[in-house]
Amino acid sequence: MRFPFEVPFSEMEASLDEFVTAVFSCLASEFLVMPKGVGFIEYPVFEKGYEALKQATSAFEDISQESITRVAFEVPISIIVIRAMLGLTPPEWAYLATQRTSVRVDQGFARALDRKIRFAPLKPLKPSGVSTERVNALMEVAFKLLRDGVPQVENNKLHRLDKADTKYGKESIRHLANMGFPYPMVLYERFLGRPFAGHRDSVSELVGDSLESAIEDVLTKAGISYRKTKRAERIPGFDQTPDFIIPNEFNPEILIEAKITEDDGTARDKVTRVQHLGALAIADQPTNQPKYEVIACIAGRGLGVRREDMKKLLLATRGKVFTSQNLDRLVEFTRLKEFQTKKKQPA
Questions:
Q1: For residue 117, which of 90, 96, 87, 145 has the smallest C-alpha distance?
Q2: pLDDT (0 to 100) of residue 229
Q3: Sign for the pseudo-dihedral over CA of 211, 216, 222, 227
Q4: CA gap 57, 65 in Å, rounded
Q5: What is the CA 185 to chain-centroid distance, rounded?
Q6: How far is Cα 165 from Cα 82, in angstroms, rounded to an integer?
Q7: Mean pLDDT in order along the chain per 10 residues (347 residues)
């Protein structure tokens, strides 16, 4: 099977469907394996928070604002356990606290608190003025939500607390926690998200970094000078910053975009970004003489769904589309070989 980067652009253009199939055939997806990332909460640590909360409330028989607030400061991971019970994100919890108490809890504080706990889940929180006031406000609204359960809503609507453990307030929590059911594991999976989606979102940049690291490895082994850009960095001359510029932004000869997605909707946005770089490359240039070569390195099942999107990607890069399975041929079949200073070592 031939790949689009192996043939002249005119030949690829004439047999576009064939080369779309070729790219699709080697698109790999690693959605079953994710990086843990810094601050990942292991289940035994999460369970310590659950047990501390259970002990402080006499096995959830005596859930009071005072008891959950005390354990929140003593065993901070219990705050994340409470959030899992509520089924809220940190910003959502902060919003409710602001709306339902006399304390303003901004979303930045809620995110920072969540991050702080992830890095030191068992280190007691030190009382400190405004922060203490905000944590107290979070606990106050949490207590009220856990106590009251689901309010009356219209038949065509669904309340977020309409869950097995919170539907009837404290009674639901007591029932679930004392029926021999692995309640802390359910909470842990809820914390990770549907399942693991919450964690997947939190490490999405790391997932993308895995592809970028592979590209860096190829460039470094070939002795190619490159500039790897930072997130949201602005580069003069580019209204959209590419992931890699070879050799640098002062003399851009090659642009590399690393795109990984497991969702076909997101894939369309990523293709559009590469198309834009392709348009910049040919703007005000003679036919077939782009000012720089645009390369796309892709991964994930999302990019292997819509054939029309892949056609656009192939045309925008003039066939220079590589996947993780053929990344080892990146230098050989692009202008990168012009900048190679180290020969490929024999296997």
A1: 90
A2: 93
A3: positive
A4: 10
A5: 23
A6: 12
A7: 92 94 83 80 96 94 94 97 93 93 93 95 92 96 94 87 91 88 90 65 62 92 94 86 94 94 81 94 91 93 87 96 93 96 75
Contact 68, 143 (CB under 8 A): yes
Query: How far apart (Å, rounded) are the C-alpha atoms in residues 238 and 227?
Result: 14
Tell me whether the omega of the peptide bond preceding residue 247 falls within 30 degrees of 0, making it cis: yes
Could you give the CA distance from residue 111 to residue 89 in angstroms, rounded to a whole number? Answer: 9
Element holding 125 (H helix, E strand): none
Helix (H) or strand (E) holding 256: strand 254-260
Q: 258 — phi, psi (to 5°)? A: -105, 115
For the record, the structure tokens of 62 come out as: 């005596």
The one-character DSSP state at 318 is: T
pLDDT at 202: 63
Q: DSSP H helical segments within 241-306, as ranges?
A: 264-282
**In the chain, what are the domains?**
4-33+204-339 (3.40.1350), 43-202 (no CATH)
pTM of the model: 0.62
DSSP classification of residue 145: H
Joined tokens for residue 138: 């979070």
